[in-house]
Prior knowledge:
Helices cover 59% and strands 4% of the residues. By secondary structure, it is mostly helical.
Amino acid sequence: MKRTATQAATEAFERRIRELMAEGYGVPFAVDQAYRENPVMKVMYDEMRAQIRAEAERGYGAPLPQGITDRLFTHSWAPDGLTLSARTTQGAILVRELVARTISEQIKKSAFGRPIMPAASYRQASLAIFDGYKMGGVIPVQDIPKYLAQTIAVARHAGVPRDEMMKMLRPIRRQIEKGTTAGMRAAYSQLVDALEAQNEKALKRAIFTATQERTRYFADRIARTEMARAYQDGFLLRWDNNDDCVAYQWKLSGRHPRYDICDLYAKANLYGLGAGVFPKDKVPRLPAHPHCMCFLKPVIRGMMDNETPIDRIEEGGREYLDSVDLHHRQMLLGIHGAKDVMDGKISWTQKARGYGGKKVDSRLSSTGGSGDIIIQSGALNPNSDRAFKHAATYYESVRHMTTDCARIAANTGFREQDIRVIKRHVFIEEHDLRSGRERFFPDYEMAQSWQRLIDGRDIQERDIVLLNHEFLEHTLMRLGKSASDAHEQAQKVYNYAAMVRRN
């Protein structure tokens, strides 16, 4: 799982926070501005789209058409109902809040546990003094003693060890007490306090931890979970309609992080089919939790002695819980929950952490609408013979549809009469083409677009572009342009083909 752009954005985010704070900006502004310039989660979203598609295809075992895999980004799978885009947007809010809080907490601490000045760092304090520190009057640059200015310069750039810095500051503190006004003594002393505490060093550590570790944690959490889910979507698309597959077995990842509900799913016999084996329509939601890397294995007909499931969820769960020690029961059920469950006072399903009763299904499965293109088995490349046959069949069905234009108009805001013009142009009329006078060649991606427009679900930007392209192309041909010239001219304004390739 390589995310080089995401890592680069994270590092730039960190650097920019430090730069802004060094310029005297407060923590909330520095973090927000740095994130606007380096939106880590947005970069991750863009970088991951191709990887997520690849994981779905890996789970399916063959290439998938872009129109199918689009559902990975437009359909949610988790109980929170969030798509990947919404999840990364939420992650961006959490990252900014967490980073700002981590840095602010560090600023409130000194190396000795004492509160320090409200400024973000000693550098901010020194800049404030040079720019004018108002305590009994402004301190001009030229009034900063040479010995103090030199110390500031050394501390800023040399990375002096703490012991050496403390040794250097002791005579400076004595010097400050000897002269100047009370206001200047207070200002100089504040600066020395900051230098003594070495706040910048601690602050740099805090910023690094907040951005590099915690930001990466959020990115990794989203990435791992979404990619695991994409794999399962492809897997389910492949096996759900395969009659030879009679069940699924829940398998723990070799990187299973800690004991949790997944251990029960993998080891309990809940349906009489064996440990971790579920009927295809009874598999719990997967991934079961953030960072969950568990996966399913198909159980092929003949692999089990008994292929008829029986509901023994309560019994099977209790058998498993009886087989583990008290510590693990409490990890799964809680201290009081473990006691109540084992005493028979309550079902384990009501206390097991992470158990929701929701069943897994694939975002890639067909909606089953009239004329929908369904993948049953095997690869379906948009340029393959099989895809062409699907498209040809679909184009023929469109010619017999009577409600599609009205539905598309209602779903898009286009005039119904314009949709009828587009339909005749694309699906019905013959045109003077290079190969002779005939209808347009059936196109799989256009078939997918037309069906989405009919259904009114998951309509994509390119689907609207298609309508505009075909209407303009029709208009240009009515004005005397050839089909090829009209197509090329319409393509310059509404480039449907480019959007298909991009996605």
